[in-house]
Amino acid sequence: MLLRGARRLELDQDENQAALFQRHLPELVEGVCSELINGDTAIPAVNGTPPPGQKPVSLGRRVFSIPTLVSFAIAAAFLISLVTRFDIDWETTWSKLRASNPYLYGAAFASYYFGFFLRGLRWRIMLSNAQGQGESSRKLPSTLACAQYVFLGWFANTVTWFRLGDAYRAYVFTEDTGYSFSRTAGTLLAERVMDVVTVFVLLVVASLALFGAGDMGRFGLFLGGALLLVLIGVAGLLAMKQFGTRLARLLPARLKSSYDRFHQGALGSFGQLPLLLVISLLTWFTEVGRLFFVIQALGLSEATGFPLVLFVTLANAILTTVPITPGGLGIVEPGIVGLLTLSMARSEALSATLLDRSISYLSIVVLGGLVFLLRQLSRRRRGKTSLDSSSGRGGSTLE
What we know:
Elements: H1 2-14, H2 17-38, H3 59-63, H4 66-85, H5 90-98, H6 102-130, H7 143-159, H8 165-177, H9 181-211, H10 220-248, H11 253-267, H12 273-297, H13 306-320, H14 332-340, H15 346-398
Helix pairs in contact: 2-8, 5-15, 6-7, 6-9, 6-11, 6-12, 6-15, 7-8, 7-15, 8-9, 9-10, 9-11, 9-12, 9-13, 10-11, 12-13, 12-15, 13-14, 14-15
C-alpha cells in the first residue's frame, strides 16, 4: 500500500500543470456545488486521495469569495434597478399573482419540466452517436437518468457563477458511468451549438411574425447576440474538423489523447441529425409553453400574442448565457419585463416575470438542491458500504 502511494505521489509530481488542471477540474466543480448545498469543506478526492497540495476549503471562504460576492452584487444591482427605476404598481402586481389560476400554473410547470425529459432523450442519442470503441459495449443510462444529469447541470448553473453546470454534468456522468470525461464534454459542446442554432432560427421567425422584415432591427441586440453565438459555435466546430487533429499532434501525449476524445465527442454527436433537430425544436417549445401558460394563468392572454411569447422566451434564453450572475439572476428579469411591456402594463409584465421565474429559477434551486442532496447522501452510503467491505476483506487477509 505504501509503495502504491509513493508511486502515485511520484507520478503526480512529474505531471505538468496543464495535465493537473485537466485532471482535477471536475473535482473543483464538485467541491463548489457541494459546499453551496451541504457544507462540504474539502474538494472531493480522486479515488479517495486528495489532489496534490490540496488544503481543506472553508465554506465561508467559498461563499464569501470575491467572484461569488461580485456575481451576486451585480444581480442585486440589476434587481434594485428594476424595482426603483420603474413606476410599478405593487398592489396590482400582487393581486394579479394571488388571482393566478393554479391549474394553468401547473401546466406551465409541467411543460417546463417535460423539457428536461426531451433534453435527456436528445443527450442520450448524442452520447450513443459519440461512443468510442472502448465504450460501445457499455449500456447507456436511461433517458430519465440522462434527464437527471441535465437537471443537475442546470441546478449548478443557478447556484454558481460562470455557468459551471455543463462541467458539473460531465463530471457526475463520468463519475457514475466510467465514460470518458473529455468525450462527454465534447457532446455538451455539440449540444450547445445545436441549441444556439435552434434559438436563432426561432428568434428570426418570431421577429418576422412580430414586426415583418422591414422592422426586425428593433431587437437587433437579441438577434445579433444569437447570431454571434451561432457563428462562434459553428466556426469552432468547423475549425476542429479541419485543423483539430493536425494541431493536436503538437500537444503532449496526455493532452492529445484527451483532445482526441473531446474531438470525437463534439463531431461524432451529430448522427441522426433530423431526429435531433426535431427534439431540439420540441424542447424549446416546452420553454415557450411555460411562459404561454404563465400568461394564461394571469389572465393576460388577450394582450399578448403567441409571436411575442415566443420572442420573449428565446430572448430569455439569450440573457441566461451571460455568465456573470448565477442563472442570469438580475439580468433576465428586467429583460422579460421590458419586452412584455410592449403589450401590457408594467405591473402586469412584472407579475408574469415573477411567476415565470418562480419556475425557471426558483424551482430549479429548490428541486435541484433536493436532487443534489439525495445524490450526495446516496454516494456517502455507497462509500461507507465500500469502505466497510474493504475493511472486512483486509481483516480476513491479515488473519
